[in-house]
Design goal:
The complex is a heterotrimer of chains A (383), B (292) and C (307). Chain A contains 11 helices and 20 strands. Chain A has 383 residues and is of the alpha+beta class. Chain A has 2 domains: 231 residues, Rossmann fold; 136 residues, OB fold (Dihydrolipoamide Acetyltransferase, E2P) (Beta Barrel). In chain A, the strands form 4 sheets. In chain A, strands 6-7-8-3-9-10 form a 6-stranded mixed β-sheet, sandwiched between helices. In chain A, strand 11 and strand 12 form a beta hairpin. In chain A, helix 2 packs across helix 3 and helix 3 packs across helix 4. The longest helix of chain A is centred in the middle third of the chain and has 18 residues. The mean pLDDT of chain A is 88. Chain B is mostly helical. Chain B has 2 domains: 58 residues, no CATH class; 226 residues, MetI-like fold (Orthogonal Bundle). Chain B has 12 helices and 2 strands, in the order H-E-E-H-H-H-H-H-H-H-H-H-H-H. In chain B, helix 1 packs across helix 12. Chain B is globular, with a radius of gyration of 25 Å. The termini of chain B are far apart. Chain C is mainly alpha-helical and 307 residues long. Chain C folds into 2 domains: 65 residues, no CATH class; 213 residues, MetI-like fold, CATH 1.10.3720.10. Chain C has 15 helices and no strands. The chains are: A alpha+beta (383), B mainly alpha (292), C mainly alpha (307). Chains B and C meet through helix 1, helix 3, helix 4, helix 5 and helix 6 of B and helix 2, helix 5, helix 6, helix 7 and helix 13 of C.
Chain lengths: 383, 292, 307
Amino acid sequence: MGRSMAQLELRNVTKRYENGFEAVSNFNLDIQDKEFIIFVGPSGCGKSTTLRMIAGLEEASEGEIWIDDRLVNYVEPKDRDLSMVFQNYALYPNMTVYDNIAFSLQVRRLPKKEIDNRVREVARILEIENLLDRRPKDLSGGQKQRVAIGNAIIRRPKALLMDEPLSNLDAKLRGQMRVELAKLHERLDTTFIYVTHDQTEAMTLGTRIVVMKDGRIQQADTPKMLYEHPVNRFVAGFIGSPAMNFLEGVVCCEEKKLWLRCGARMDFELTWCSVYSVLTDYIAKTVTAGIRPEDIYLEEEYRKMGQEEQKGLKAVKVTVTARELLGAENILYFQAGENDLIAKVGPECAYRSGEEITLYFDTKRMHFFDAGIGMNVERCELG
Amino acid sequence: MKIGAEKEKLGKKIEPYLFLMPSLLVFGIFLFYPFAKTIYLSLFKTNKMGQAKIFVGLGNYIELFTSKSFYNSIGVTVVFVAIVVVLSMALGLLGAVLCNRSFPGIRIFSTAYALPMAIASASAALIFKIMLHQSVGIINKLLHLEINWISDPKYALVCVAVLTAWLNSGINFLYFSAGLANIDETLYERASVDGANGIQKFFRLTLPGLGPILFYTLVVDVIQAFQSFGQVKILTQGGPGESTNLIVYSIYRDAFFNYRFGTAAAESIILFLIIMCLTLVMFKIEKKGVKY
Amino acid sequence: MSDMVAENIQGMRRRAMTREEMESLQREMNLRAKRKKKIRTVSLLGANVVTAFIILLPLLYAVSIAFMPSGELFVMDLNIVPKHPTLENFKLALQRVPLVRFVFNSFLTAGAITLGQIISCSLSAFALSFLDFKGRNVVFMIIMATMMLPGEATIISNYLTISSWGWLDSYQALIVPYLTSAMGIFLFRQFYLSFPMSLYESAKIDGCGNMRFLVSILLPLTKSAIGAMAVYTFINAWNMYMWPLLVTGSNNMRTVQIGIGMLDSVDSQSITLMIAGVVMIILPSISIFIVGQKQLIRGMFSGAVKG
């Protein structure tokens, strides 16, 4: 499929409604060709609005949107050379699947023969060749989804925009379609811009993820960077499932070592922390420590580790409050001091509610956030 | 004890029919019985009191189908219904499309478009009579014409039809508005991303999206148009000549002026058959054509 | 500048622009967008004004004539607005025919029909949607089939029936044949079916009888359907023409639509008078329509008509 490369650039894009509400503020982003970009965030964070401004369905109040060095702010949606998959699929109920897919070519008055060839090609890619004569109401959710995607890719657009495309599917189908979307992206070699509120979708699909909140970008990074180096407490809590645990504590210096004191039974020695040097600036200050449920281990698991691995793991006495077995893993709910925390541990764990046990917290993988503004302390280095 | 239970059981069995009783009674006396009686009457010659006197079999029907006047009535009715249906649907659709997007004052306009449905055919006919008046009517004054609309066989039927279309346009507007509101807004968004212009959107999305309601309205409008009476009675009395002698009016005239109840009954039955066939045909076409 | 704007509709090449150019371009384009929106709103408004004027023309004209001294009507030039508005026509119309009596008759007839239809239709619809009995579907189908019967197929026989009972020229002749309607039953049933059966079952368990359930649970829940039905039925009954024409003969029993015809005579002096009468009898149905419009639309289209 021959096609020009597509580069998208959003400069200071702002959406302000007539009542003064700012849905998107000062949005800056460069999207390279063939990226799979995800806009993720809680509902009302402005992710869909941003997508709709790129599509041209809404006007940007301020800022510039460039596609391949062409300013498109004032270009009609149909002339932007983008296509879009809507949350409810937006299939034309009165047309067959064939016409639904072909619509964008038909309105451009392409020769019938060419339209036919392209519809069949797309149908083959999406494996919906046998559905072409059906009407949308006779399709299952997954099939509708494919038809919507078919309509979007048949034009070979510069970028494919998707607005929560999987949210109307059931959990199992969602998983399947996720895999297929990833394959499709590889096969089409097109820029995908994808909006979702589901961080799992974001993490598994995106080459780059833009986490948004209250109309502002919190962090735009690769999944790995988001997971390992969240810029603030919001991103840290939003990415990952179950969500990261947070503990308030005071940094202090004793015996020439840095410690984090989080109430009566929890002191963490910070010697092995990656951000040790930064934390020296926080002595006597309160910080929020974050630890992911997967970085907390059972005693049995701790014993099996090598010496090097055991370094930096800190034992904490806790009380189990509940346990959920999820097949290959257990989710352990427990209380440590005043904090209700969660750990993700192996399937062999059989503790019951009320038991007192020891868990090992990996301080090497702890994150630290400024207790006031919630920024990751790594980011505060310079300021 | 047992008898009591039995009684209760019987009561339970009868209860549903008691609930239905009032409606079924009215239907029975004023719909089913008279319908049967109309069929019966249509096979007889009657006296002035409407009592069946001489059995003539299909005589009344044969008489009708050999009468020029009856064929004229059918022809006039068909033309009338066609004009009324097309015009009233067009008016309703125009209003609905104009009120589809929100703008200041939309409530006033949508009330205006729906308003004709609250007007009686008799009242409207009296107003139109003056509007179409040869010397004082506003139509002639506005168009600088001196046509005697109502007394001219060329125009009389059109005038009655326009009046009827106006009366029916109000409810059509409501139906179409509801239909338009039912079309998913994202379809239009998708169409703009897909590259469709306004005209393409109207013909490929709006009209097909209205399909079921257009059809429903068509059926209702046809049935209603066939039954128009008050406006003819007041505006033209079937004249000039027989140019506006719709079937319903001719039934009225035969029964209550000429006291030929048998003939009138036969005409009613024919009218009923025409309406029924048309309705069935329309549903057949709908089943074949519009699938979704 | 404007060249650049024109070019920009199709998009603008990068780096061909300085910062200032960009800013002025954005200003210009935002202004244009605003202007375009304004033009669109204004033209839509304009189209609506024209269409609404045409639709309302007969009514506006009627109101205007009703206030016109009859002499003013017979001038050759366009006389849309009365130059010397007068209430004389209304007064004379009320004197010439017993209009008050007609209005009373119509109100009584339409009111009784409306009330009767609401009662009979909700009773039937209740049985058809909540009670289980033999032949339920058949009964429903038969009732629906009656919608296909045009009034003309029965009107002659009905007239003969009524006259054989000696009911001609009486209120019961005007009211009784219309005490139920298939459309009303259909509308109510549609509404009742949207409630879960468990609503009925739990009321039953609480010891609530059928009648009580209908009156104290179902009716309050279906206010909007009842409202729609009431507005629609009342207007239709108020506007009835053929049946009252046949069965009423005296001034005491005539309804407004028939009575108003009495003002219609060749006497040209009476044109303004007649229209004044028409305006007076249109007022009740229009007011009820305007007041009940929202109710009517909500009731008729929530669920009843689906695309």
